[in-house]
Amino acid sequence: MIIQLDMQSDTPIYTQLMNQIIEGIASGKLKRGESLPSVRSLASDIGVNLHTVNKAYTLLKQEEYIQVHRQKGVVVHPDGMPGLTPEYSIKQQSQLRPVIAESILRGISLEDFLQTVEHIYTDISSPERGL
Amino acid sequence: MIIQLDMQSDTPIYTQLMNQIIEGIASGKLKRGESLPSVRSLASDIGVNLHTVNKAYTLLKQEEYIQVHRQKGVVVHPDGMPGLTPEYSIKQQSQLRPVIAESILRGISLEDFLQTVEHIYTDISSPERGL
DNA sequence: ATATCTGTTATATTTGTAGTATAACACAAA
DNA sequence: TTTGTGTTATACTACAAATATAACAGATAT
């Protein structure tokens, strides 16, 4: 999987990494049990420090999106992803609320907002598949 | 308007302030031209430094959500809010994308996600009105 | 066995942001 | 002239992000 980083972004590198891996799993480009690069090789590839990658992996592990074996390396969680937990539901709503509020402030209708969401949703879940 | 801050949150205070003022405007609790507390009085009220409030106000001014007069103080922008600009559209999508990706990863259907969004949207735009 | 490749842990350092603490300036109203 | 605005400047502490090395622990290949 190709990782694209924006070093000028105010989003931390480890967060950008997490987001891209999450989107990779969500889109199906990364499948259950599939291997991810080692912390060192990925760090080397994208030109960042080992610890930056390690932080992203550690957080993804905490959320049970990936598994880490001491010698086998890092793999997408083979048992599948966790579902909609109460904790995630709270996190999700606290992430959405400010975005929705600002959109309302700018006069964006519910219908338009839902359409934007739907567009992004389908864009992520229906990637160009080289079948 | 009552401001509620979470000093334990990893969201910066000035961001929490911005979010609450934005939601206040979005909900109609804060109306066009309505006065906001001075930087000093608000800072004193919520127990933070003058500069923290000033930073929130400065950013809200940059987005044209409020107006700042040197002596009259701070008011909600009297000319109304800016609409859906291209810049905001990009910002909005970059905020939504990671949330949507993670929800897809956790198996949340488009319909369920849209329902969550709709719930938050109506919750913000239909506050308890003491008419 | 012994290199080698994993993740992991431990320090230390640099850089930038968040937040605080004072102080002063510019301007306008009382 | 005093007072209350926003504004600006400076300095400081605290913390997070990121880097730089180094070493440790475990498993695999040679």
What does this structure look like?
The structure is a homodimer of 131-residue chains. Chain A is mainly alpha-helical and 131 residues long. Chain A folds into two domains: 13-76, Winged helix-like DNA-binding domain superfamily/Winged helix DNA-binding domain (Arc Repressor Mutant, subunit A), CATH 1.10.10.10; 86-125. The first copy, chain A, has five helices and three strands, in the order αβααββαα. Chain A has helices at 13-27, 39-46, 50-62, 86-105, 110-125, and strands spanning 35-36, 66-69, 73-76. Chain A has a three-stranded antiparallel β-sheet with strand order 1-3-2. The first copy, chain A, starts with 12 loop residues before the first helix and ends in a 6-residue tail after the last helix. The mean pLDDT of chain A is 94. The interface between A and B is large, with 40 and 40 residues. Chain A binds a DNA duplex (30 and 30 nucleotides) through helix 3.
